[in-house]
Amino acid sequence: MDIEGLNELAIGTADRLGAEDAVALTSKARERMIRFANSSVTVVNHVEEAEMMVYVAKGKRRGIASTSNLEPSGVKRFVSDLFASLKGLPQSEYASLPDAAKKYPSASAGFDRKLDSVGPELPDLAKRAIGASLKAGGKRSAGVIEASTVSSAILTSSGTKGAETRASIKLNIRSFAANDASGHGLSCSATLAGFDPEMAGERAGSDAKRMADASEPQAGKYRVMMSPTVASNLIEIVGDSASAFSVDAGTSYLTDKLGKKVAARQFSLTDHGSVRGGLGGRRFDDEGMPTKSVKIIEDGVLSTYLHNLTTARKWKTETTGNAGLVQPHAWNLEVGAGDASYEEMVREMGEGIILTSNWYTRFKNYRTGEFSTVPRDGAYLVKGGEVAKPLKGMRVGDDLQRAFSSVQMLSKAREWIEWWEVSTPTLCPWVMLDGITVTKAYE
Questions:
Q1: Given 3-state DSSP classes, what are the helix, strand and coil percentages for the chain, each rounded to the nearest 5?
Q2: pLDDT for 85-141, tens place per residue?
Q3: Domain ranges in the chain?
Q4: Which CATH topology does 3-210 take?
C-alpha cells in the first residue's frame, strides 16, 4: 500500500475501535550517502525506510506511538494495541482535533526532481569538494554527502488530509593540514543548483592551512564574530526555548518574557512551516493544522511561543501550526539579515575573536540559558581590524539572553545551515556579539 492508503487503514481501524480523535502521519524516506576519508571515497550507501506515527485519544486519555512495520496486518494490530493501551494511561487535559476538515492537495512545493534523482553523481561531488580543499591548503579531508527525499502524508479522524514531498542535499567536510590544524566547511540546499561543494571544500582547506601554529587565547571577555554555522547552533536552542512545552516544563530561558525585550533591536527570528529554499517543514503540522510563518522575536522583543492545539488551549491562544503532538517545535528558522559584509564586520570588530565551527554545546542551567561551547577548526584573534593569528584550546560561554542582547552587527549574506550540531534548518548571517566570556579549555 502507498503511504496515503496506509493512513486510511490506520484511521479506519481507530474509528472502528471507538477513538474520539486519531491522526496517522506516515513518511517514506530515501537517502543516498557517500562518505570519504583521507581524501578517498570509503562508503557508498542507499537506504530506504518508512515509518507511521499514530495518535489516538478517548475519554481524556491519549497515546502516541510509531511503527516501521507497514504491512496492512501489522498496521491494524499496531493501532489496536495502541488503543488498548489507553486503559492504563492517566487522564489528561488536551484539545480535541477540530471538526472542520482541511484539505491539502498533494504537492511537491519546492521539490527539485534533479536532486531526487542524484546518486551516481555523488562521488564526483565529493571529489570536487576534496579537490577544492587540497587547492586551498588542506592535506587530507574527510566528510559525508547525504541526499534525501522524504514523502509525508497525513490523515485525521476529522477528515484532514494532505501529502507532499521534499528533497535536500548536505555536505560536511573537515580538512587537515599539519598536526591538529583543521578546518570545516558545509553546504546544504533544497536544490541541486544551490549546492556548492567547491565552496565548502575551499573553506575547510583554507582554515586548515591558516590554523598551523595556533595558540591558546588569553581568558577574558571579547567581541566574538560567529559564522552562520556557529550562530545557528545557538539560534536552534532559542527556537527550542520558544516552544510552549519547554516553557511549561521549566526548561526555557524565555519563560515569562512574552512582549519583553530578549535580544538586541536588530535581531529578529522567524519560523517558517514551508519556505522557498528551506530544507525542512511541511504545509501541515502533526495535527493537520496549516503551518505558516511565525515571528518568534521581532526587533528584539519576544512575540510569541510556538503552540500546538493543546498548549494553545492552556495558554488561551491559537495554535501556531507547530505541532509536535506533545512538544511544539520550529520547522525552518530564519534570522533577519543585517547590512554589513564579512570584511566590514572584521574591520569594525577592532579586537576580538572569529569562530567558524563549534561542538559540545552544553548547558549549566537551561532555565537561565547559561551555556558553554567548544570552538574547533578555524578560530582567529583579530587585532586592529585584521586577523592576527589562529587560536585553539578555548571554551566560550554566556547566557543566551545576554548574548543575543549584545548583537552589534549582522551580515547581509546568509546561509542555510543543517548538520549534526544543527538539526533545525536555519537561514543565518554572520553574527557579532559583545562581551562574550572566553576561557582556556584546559584550565
A1: 25, 40, 35
A2: 999 999 998 999 999 888 887 766 578 889 988 988 999 999 999 999 999 999 999
A3: 3-210, 220-440
A4: PmbA/TldD fold (3.30.2290)
